[in-house]
UniProtKB/TrEMBL annotation:
Keywords carried by this UniProt record: DNA-binding, Transcription, Transcription regulation
Organism for this UniProt entry: Jeotgalicoccus nanhaiensis
Gene3D superfamilies: Homeodomain-like, Regulatory factor, effector binding domain
PROSITE patterns: HTH_ARAC_FAMILY_2
Record SUPFAM superfamilies: Homeodomain-like
Residue stretches in coiled coil: none
InterPro entries: Homeodomain-like_sf (IPR009057), HTH_AraC (IPR018060), MarA-like (IPR050959), Reg_factor_effector_dom_sf (IPR011256)
Domain of life: Bacteria
HTH araC/xylS-type domain mapped to chain residues: 8-106
UniProt KW Transport keyword: no
Protein's UniProt name: Helix-turn-helix transcriptional regulator
Length: 281
């Protein structure tokens, strides 16, 4: 429950600095918090990253001000730190699906974020089948992509996956899959101030691709199926909101590891997925 209290305190910090350009990486570093771990936990509990939360809260406050009509739009947006009115309008439409001038007409139907709350209920019946296994470090070959920690969003890794699939690179990577685990791994971790997404496969061969190595650890391996973009997030939500409150384990969250076993496409509902949650035991 201490983790939950820290997330709640961090939300208060965002609220206190809502109109500022928060450098989340620097704030977490000053707090002595491992950034990948916090991003995973925050996103699983809240349903969005800290930067997404700040942006939606700002858009919500602006929507209320526009609806009340006491100040000009240009003054409102400047107050919330948006100097480019056209850029602001794009963010507003992306957030609510309507142009800002239609706010008054649609205010009651808009997906506004007044406060954040998340349900935490220890599970009694497992939602996903899982098993525990110690796995020695093994080599992955594939392609890495890097993102700024402040602008990073969870769906970036799924977009990256689909780009690689579209360009035929997933099939090319799988040609070298001669390791003991079959399928495509997605590893997410924080390195040198950036979020690294590594998409690859277990292989012993010499290849033209990048290489990395997994951690030797105990893993709780959860199984599901479906489109990775939705299915994986639901598993992590289950792990952090329900599963780990019943289990007497400490979780390692400074990296995440998922295994995808696609058929003809990642979007195939029959795509088998494993979420490898590392345990600190």
């Amino acid at each position: 429950m201490e983790t939950i209290r820290f997330v709640e305190r961090f939300i208060v910090y965002i609220e206190d600095h809502l109109r500022e350009n928060i450098d989340f990486g620097e704030v977490l570093e000053n707090m002595g918090v491992e950034q990948k771990s916090f991003m995973t936990i925050f996103t699983s509990l809240v349903g969005m990253t800290p930067s997404q939360y700040q942006e939606k809260r700002c858009m919500t406050e602006i929507a209320y001000e526009v609806y009340q009509g006491h100040r000009r739009l240009v003054d409102i947006t400047k107050y919330y730190g948006y100097r480019d009115i056209d850029a602001f309008k794009k963010v507003y439409r992306r957030t609510f699906g309507i142009p800002v001038h239609e706010t008054e007409r649609h205010i009651k139907k808009m997906d506004l974020l007044d406060y954040i709350s998340f349900e935490v209920v220890p599970t009694k019946k497992p939602k996903y089948p899982s098993y525990r296994s110690f796995v020695e470090s093994f080599r992955l070959i594939g392609i890495a992509q890097y993102f700024d920690i402040n602008s990073y969003q969870p769906d970036y890794k799924y977009k990256f996956l689909k780009i690689l699939e579209r360009d035929g690179l997933i099939d090319e990577i799988l040609r070298y899959n001669d390791g003991f685990v079959k399928g495509i791994f997605v590893q997410e971790r924080f390195i040198d101030g950036e979020m690294e997404i590594f998409v690859g496969t277990a292989s012993y061969q010499h290849t033209p691709f990048d290489e990395t190595f997994t951690e030797s650890m105990n893993y709780e391996i959860f199984e599901t199926s479906g489109d990775p973009g939705a299915a994986i997030d639901k598993v992590y939500e289950y792990i952090f909101r329900r599963w780990h409150f019943r289990e007497d384990v400490n979780m390692t969250c400074d990296f995440s590891l998922e295994l995808i076993k696609p058929t003809y496409s990642f979007e195939d509902p029959g795509t088998k997925i494993q979420v490898w949650q590392a345990l600190d035991e």
